[in-house]
Amino acid sequence: MATCRNYADCVKTLLVLLTFVFLVPYRGFAQRPQQSIYVGGMGGVATLSGDGSAIVTPSSASTSLFDPDNGGAADIFAGVHLFEYVSFQADYVYNRNNAVVVSTSVEPNEMNFFRQPESITQNAFLANVLVYFRRRDSRIRPYLAEGGGAVLLHSRLSGKATVGGIVVLPPSTSDHASIALRTSVGLDLRLFGPWYFRYSFGETITRNMLGDQVVPTQHRIPKNFQSLFGIYVRF
User: Fold this and answer.
1) Phi/psi of residue 28, each to 5°?
2) DSSP secondary structure letter of residue 88
3) Strand 36-48, strand 71-81: pairing
4) Which residue from 72, 53, 68, 71 is spatially nearest to 99, judged by alpha carbons?
5) I need a labelling partner for 221 at 20 to 30 A (CA). Which of 104, 122, 137, 176 fits?
6) Cβ contact 179:22 at 8 Å
């Protein structure tokens, strides 16, 4: 999976990759067999990246931690096999993860902290370019996909918070939206007739939509890793 030092670098990387896909002439683009449309669905596991931040001075210290659990994920997609080695695809991806947010600050004669469990739901709407490494009539076809779109994130309090001292808790519910960049690899396996099995491992990155809710704030780029498998049918 691609890695970036910050959100702007990720956007630049995606633009370079898409430019390469669309502008570099090679035989796969010159060959245009009959176009075919496909639709399908996948399910699997979503893993969110954690985060943490710390500020330490001679007289005080503060830390924050975002600790997520694995959750379920689902992907509904439709696409068109436009070229011999290239397809275009639209996805709706859903995943839900539980997480724990912890914040602690210590000063002379004073300690403040909280621990708050949250449920995080993400709805992603994505457009992708799939580049295959074998011909369309091959039984097994590995591919690389690059794309982007938008993610809607909803978080809510999922249990009792533990509080000590004087603190400002994150809101019990919150909604955020972000541009999303997605990279995935996978393979298609022809089963019988127009039916295919698909496996995909993808990474979706967004801006940090929850980092501003804790003190000290967190700035690392959040990543959503998804391991999915399912089927699709070609028309």
Assistant:
1) -60, -30
2) E
3) antiparallel
4) 68
5) 104
6) no
